[in-house]
Amino acid sequence: MEEEIYFDDFELILQEQVNRFKMVPEKKVWHGIYNDLHPGRRWPSVMVSLVLISSIVFIGNINRQVDKKSAHIHLQTPGIHDGKDFSKPGTINGNNKLSVKPVYQKNDKQNGVAQSNSGEAITSFNKKREISSSIDLSVLHQKASKINTTNSENTFALNQTTHSPIETSLESNPRNKKENNSLYDDAIIENSMSDNKLDIISNRPGISLSAKDLEISLSENLYEKLFRPETELIKTNTHIEELITSVGNDKNNVKNNSDNNKKAVLAITKKRNEKIKWVYYAGPFVSTVAFSGRPLKESPNLNLSVSPLPQVIQKDIRVIRNPALGFEAGLQMNYSFATKFHFTAGAHLTRSGYNIISNLVHPTLATLTLRNTSTGDNYSRNFVTHYGDGTGKSTVTLHNYSYQASIPMGVQYALWSNDNLQVNLAANFEPSLVFKADAYLLSGDGKNYVNVPDLMRKWNFSSNFGPFVSFSSNKFRWNIGPTVRYQWLSTYQKNYTVKEHLIDYGIRLGISK
Amino acid sequence: MTEEQMLQGCLKNNASTQEALYKRFSPRMLGVCYRFARNREDAEDMMQEGFIKVFSQIHQFRGQGALEGWIRRIIVHTCINILKKNKKFSDSVDLFHASTLHLNENNIPSLLQAKQVVECIRLLPLGYRTVLNLYAIEGYSHREIASILDIEESTSRSQYTRAKSMLEDILLKNKILQQPRQKVRMVSGLI
After folding, report:
1. Among chain A residues, CA nearest to B49
2. How far is residue A83's CA from residue A183's CA, in Å, rounded to a whole number?
3. How far is A371 from chain B (nearest CA, A)?
4. Which residue in B has a C-alpha nearest to residue A39's C-alpha?
5. Which residues from B are below 8 Å from A365, CB to CB?
6. CA B37, CA B150: separation in Å to the nearest integer?
């Protein structure tokens, strides 16, 4: 009896063929492995990031301090200091009367601490910090050798050891005391200065000053002049009365200037706020796309297990497509750095894309040929797809879209303006993160579409430009105008040879206070 | 660099040696992963996880057998574990589609090509594909497959039979396999 037996080499063929199959992995795979195996080697990059962040915070902090300083300088209005010396010896109580107490101090080491029942003037404020002072430190530092303020005891002590040109002048011509006391001309007097400010002042280099003690040192000559025997005391008292008047005036000035200072602070704050404006905007747009390049196709006659040569498709391949509706919404900060120019920065979300007209086909294996950017070799990816090139029946629409989060930075120029209306021109450049997307790409032979969202770039760059009209209405200011958005880099990664650039035409509506 | 040198370097956790080993074996291992995975990205993820295991367990390699075989087994086991964990792989291609799938005519070469065979394997449903990969290509026995996949041994056998039949059909239908069966006339006589 004869029997036909079939020898089946199925497994052998499979093993032989499959074991020849190789694929080149992306570089990111090794990077992932490396980072997992050597986590410690990520520290340099982490450290660099930390240093960068710290630097930015530090620079920001410095700039803020500079702002504070400049604001402080603005507060020195001329009316505050009109040559009156609030620190002259004498006591001011609530009624602006001077009380002379029979105690006086001398800090000279040779003379010891001299005390007298008659020739000493101690100025004291009955109310603690009724008039407190903040002093322009740079001027004081230049003009006065030492300033100590006793605040807790409310005492101005005169220091014999200190000699300064001002003090000499005081001695030589008492009438000029007021004028010469303009050594404190630049001092700022504030009624409501807090301990914090005193602390800040006392921490400045070169100045011996504390919130607790505010001692004003004058020359030995002045000291003697003020505290001479009784004959001189009359003169001194007269002089002190003058001082009372002047200090009283100072006090009034202080009150007036306190109000002025508050106004000045408000003005500065307002001015700064005026420089920065926040604009909320949103708008629809129509997305289209521009293609360049052609898909690669593998030659069917070549052995595909070796590196195939690219072959440009001879027939004209085109994607039948329709524009799609997109939108954008975001927040923008406008910073005015010149009369007509604004720097703009912000963040927004965008959805853009287009629709491909396709047709349903029987499940088909379609090949997408890609180019390895590092080696230049081509490789293929195969997909099972249901979508034809759109030339057949049973039409279906495929949506190529992307959601992007962008950080636009740019400039805005005011072309023309009047009280209510302003015409501007804006342009910006925006790095974008694609956080959700879908893409259908034409296969190498141009006959099918395959769904390959992973070929899309994660990061891209776009530009927005266009004019807009800005006008005021009640509390708000409205912006409206056309805008064009162009995507600079291809939607897809470099290994896909077709370049796709999205172009969006839309209307942007903005609102600000 | 020899395998021995690579082994020594990897045991010392030397990054450049690890990279050399990776570059030598990754193309073939990615091919292995690709047969199990739904797409290239999943295959790369599988391979990445597999190589991390390879480098972290390289001290367990005792030099018995080829290094590539040892790496391959780790990679395959990693693929299986990921497939078992990830339910999304089960909804790949249904049975009806698999039996009716055909390759685009322009892509059909006259000779049997490795790539086409792999692509045809990937058209199979997940269960069939996995059993076929393990039995016909990786050389596991049905008992081992049953143990790995937590199924009955008989299930593994039946799945393989069906997978083989389906793959033959696909290869024939797409004219990839010109001579899927070599007819050998044998004479057996009853004595």
Report:
1. A33
2. 8
3. 15
4. B15
5. 101-104, 107, 119, 123
6. 19
Question: Is-contact A393 A359, C-beta < 8 A?
Answer: yes
Interface test with B, best of A19, A382, A445, A496 (most B CBs within 10 A): A382
The chain B residue lying nearest A298, using CA atoms, is B107
Sort out which chain B residues have CB atoms less than 8 A from A9's CB and list them.
181-182
Cβ contact, residue pair B27, A38, below 8 Å = no
Cβ–Cβ under 8 Å, residues A166 and A181: yes
By Cβ distance, the residue of B44, B52, B189 closest to A37 is B52
B161 contact partners, CB below 8 Å, separation of at least 6:
none
Which of B168, B66, B186 is closest to B121 using CA atoms?
B168
Q: Scan for tokens 């030589």, then name that residue.
A: A172
End-to-end CA distance of chain A: 101
Looking at the complex, report in whole angstroms how far the Cα of residue B98 sits from the nearest Cα belonging to chain A.
9
Q: Does A307 touch chain B (CB under 8 A)?
A: no
Neighbouring-strand partners of residue A388? A448
- Nearest neighbour of B115 by CB, restricted to A28, A304, A362: A304
- A298 vs B18: CB contact, 8 Å cut-off? no
Decide if B25 contacts B54 (C-beta within 8 A).
no
Q: pLDDT tens track of chain A, all 513 residues?
A: 333 333 357 777 788 888 888 888 888 889 888 888 887 666 667 677 777 887 777 777 666 665 555 555 444 444 444 444 444 444 444 444 444 444 444 444 444 444 444 344 444 444 444 444 444 444 444 544 444 444 444 434 444 444 444 443 444 444 444 444 444 444 334 444 444 444 544 454 544 444 444 444 444 555 555 555 555 656 667 777 887 787 777 777 777 777 777 777 777 766 666 778 889 999 999 988 888 877 666 544 333 333 333 444 445 567 888 889 999 999 999 888 888 888 999 999 999 999 998 888 887 888 888 888 777 788 888 888 888 887 777 788 899 999 999 999 999 999 888 878 889 999 999 999 998 898 998 888 888 888 888 888 989 999 999 999 998 887 888 999 999 999 999 999 888 888 889 999 999 999 988
Query: Using an 8 Å Cβ cutoff, are A265 and A347 in contact?
Result: no
Could you give the CA distance from residue A499 to residue B3 in angstroms, rounded to a whole number?
Answer: 43
Closest listed residue to residue A323, CA positions, set A292, A291, A355, A350: A355
Structure tokens at A314: 């001879």
pTM: 0.40
Nearest to A389 by CA among A439, A437, A445, A438: A445
Instruction: Find out whether A8 and B177 touch, Cβ atoms under 8 Å.
Output: no
CA distances from B145 to A391, B32, B66, B89, B120 (A): 46, 16, 22, 18, 21
CA distance B121 to A19: 13
Phi then psi for A99, rounded to 5 degrees?
Answer: -115, 125
